[in-house]
Fold:
Amino acid sequence: MKAKVLIRPKEGILDPQGKAVERSLPALGFEGIHGVRIGRLVELEVDDPAQLDSLCEKLLANPLIEDYEIVLGEASSNGSRPA
Amino acid sequence: MIGVLQFPGSCDERDAVAAASRVGDARLVWHEETDLSGLDGVIVPGGFSYGDYLRAGAIARFAPAMESVARFAAEGGPVLGICNGFQVLCEAGLLPGALLPNAELRFVCRQVELVVEDFSGPFAAEIAAGERLSIPIKHMSGRYFAPDDELDRLEAAGQVAFSYAEDWNPNGSARDIAGVTNAEGNVLGLMPHPEHAVDPLTGSDDGLALFRAVARETVTA
Structure:
């Protein structure tokens, strides 16, 4: 089964990457965009999805500084437009 | 004998051996070695273990040698983590907290001033609280973080070993913290590089005290 793991910096933790991107936006003409946060996306194929929580806690995320979200299957948006 | 771990991607392990050799015997320990018998102290050196993929130190934590280091630490052996070694020890849960990318997003390489805090354990033996040390840093992810209540607890328990002196915080570390110990005090991690400060020729020999502390353990062990 395909799965995606979304990993984000925990709320309240300074995300300098997000800040740098946010600050660059007005120069490109993008106004009114705030709260940019940058995380990580891990795509994987897994036989037993029950393992994923433990995998995230032990390796993919550091629970002290990051939150994670597991998305199973291929249903979630991959950014392409519906036909 | 002091053992200095060597992961693929380590880069300061030879300097650490050279520094430790000024005060005792030292050798490299390849990351696949699991037999640490005969070692009196362990140093987890700086560098970019396993490319620092995912997060700094995240993969090195699973190296065969690290399981042995965890046992060594649990038995009270002195373990010193420098820079990437500090990150590895935090990821392994041997030290509290985590190291985040520098607040300014830049790799920072410069001499900094540290203040020795009132901490305990074998590493405190050779350094007096309140002393100032001049030791270089060179890192991209050195912003120490722990939740506020955990920071209060660490300070109260004397687990904060080193702070950046006023106006010297190079990376946005919480409460200017540069190094911490575990509850027992036998595991110490810090972002600055004491192995690069062992000879006045290169600006400072303030780092030697930490190696003397490990070597001292090897005498009394």
About this structure: Chain B has one domain: 2-220. The longest helix of chain B spans residues 208-220. The interface with chain A takes residues 54-55, 58, 62, 91, 97-98, 100-105, 143, 145-147, 172 of chain B (CB under 8 Å). The mean pLDDT of chain B is 95.
